[in-house]
Design goal:
This protein is an alpha/beta fold. It is 46% helix and 15% strand. It has a three-stranded parallel β-sheet. A two-stranded antiparallel sheet has the order 4-5.
């Protein structure tokens, strides 16, 4: 069924099952444990507890956060919180993951770990990831990059080489964007 012809409650269900969202701000609920945050979408879909537990174990193991499940959000690091947010986004095995600056609040090591995780999700779970970033280093983890200027696609760059050459291609495209010189009188 085409999602344009769904009722509001059907559309909400479609979003929960087929789309995952990861944001720069983790958007986790501080009063819940890590595990409770992750299974929240399953709770909204009235999934049986045994199935929730199985999915939680699988996803938390995949992301390396199984030891954090009983902790509160304020007890974990930013990198761990982003992994929790990613776990919640993929708990329903969505076909599309939308990520808005997912590494923007992370240190460089945590950012690299998140990008490796995205690669694993793409490879092992066949999740398509659409990510927005201003960081060419982060963009270089992708298979394809679109440079956008003034709301229009300026250039498409496809990763046909190694990561470092691809990163350089992205940097070159950004450098060509330039900008208009501002003259001060």
């Amino acid at each position: 069924m085409h999602c344009l012809f769904l009722w509001e409650n059907e559309l909400a269900s479609f979003r929960r099952r087929e789309l995952g969202f990861v944001f720069q701000q983790f958007n986790l609920i501080n009063t819940l444990t890590v595990g409770e945050n992750i299974i929240l979408p399953l709770t909204l879909d009235s999934i049986p507890r045994t199935e929730m537990k199985q999915k939680l174990e699988k996803i938390s193991s995949l992301l390396g956060i199984e030891h954090l499940l009983e902790k509160r959000i304020y007890e974990i690091s930013g990198g761990q919180a982003q992994r929790v947010a990613i776990a919640r986004a993929i708990i329903n095995s969505p076909s599309l993951l939308l990520a808005d600056e997912p590494t923007g609040n992370l240190d460089s090591k945590s950012a690299k770990d998140v990008m490796k995780l995205f690669k694993k999700l793409n490879d092992k779970m066949n999740v398509t990831i659409v990510m927005v970033t201003h960081d060419p280093n982060i963009a270089s983890y992708s298979d394809k990059t679109y440079i956008i200027k003034d709301g229009n696609i300026y250039q498409e760059i496809i990763n046909r080489t190694n990561k470092e050459e691809y990163r350089q291609d992205i940097l070159n495209a950004i450098a060509l964007l330039g900008g208009e010189e501002v003259e001060f009188d």
